[in-house]
Write a structure and sequence with these properties.
By secondary structure, the protein is mostly helical. Helix 1 crosses helix 3, helix 2 packs across helix 3 and helix 5 packs antiparallel against helix 6. Helix content is 66%, strand content 4%. The chain starts with 7 loop residues before the first helix and ends with a helix. The protein has two domains: 68 residues, Arc Repressor Mutant, subunit A (Orthogonal Bundle), CATH 1.10.10; 62 residues, no CATH class. It has a two-stranded antiparallel ribbon. The chain is elongated, with a radius of gyration of 18 Å.
Length: 141
């Protein structure tokens, strides 16, 4: 499906979303879009986002928060190249710590880091780590 040209307001919203993702590495919330584009209500944001989805400029994953993605990936800098390697190193370090000493705090950190990996688009790696987490959780119980 080819994207239909956005209206002026939709274009401003799309540009804000692109810039936010480039700067932060994750998509903005509707409230952040509202504030960033100087809209007066979240409903206005929802309307523009809905129309951008219909026109093929963005997609939204599974009714989850911060799940807006730009359809043309070349418009967004690749954050995963910057952070995924560091993230995987952090996850591996936490697993090593769990092998030495079982800790709920470290296990919670692993859950968060694996979730971040999934958000960055490394779903298969996140699933693999989730399997390791499940094995550790079973050992605790």
């Amino acid at each position: 499906m080819t994207a239909t040209r956005p209206t002026k307001k939709q274009f401003e919203t799309l540009e804000f979303i692109k810039n936010f993702i480039n700067e932060h590495g994750y998509s903005p919330s509707y409230r952040e879009i509202m504030n960033g584009c100087n809209y007066t209500s979240v409903a206005t944001v929802a309307l523009h986002v809905g129309n951008l989805i219909k026109r093929g400029h963005i997609i939204k994953r599974d009714r989850s928060a911060r799940s807006l993605e730009i359809v043309n990936a070349s418009d967004v800098k690749s954050v995963e190249k910057n952070y995924s390697h560091e993230l995987i190193k952090e996850i591996e370090e936490r697993f090593k710590s769990l092998e030495k000493e079982m800790s709920d705090e470290i296990l919670n950190e692993v859950y968060v880091l694996v979730g971040a990996l999934k958000i960055l688009g490394h779903v298969d790696a996140a699933r693999a780590y989730a399997g390791r987490i499940n094995n550790i959780s079973r050992d605790i119980a």
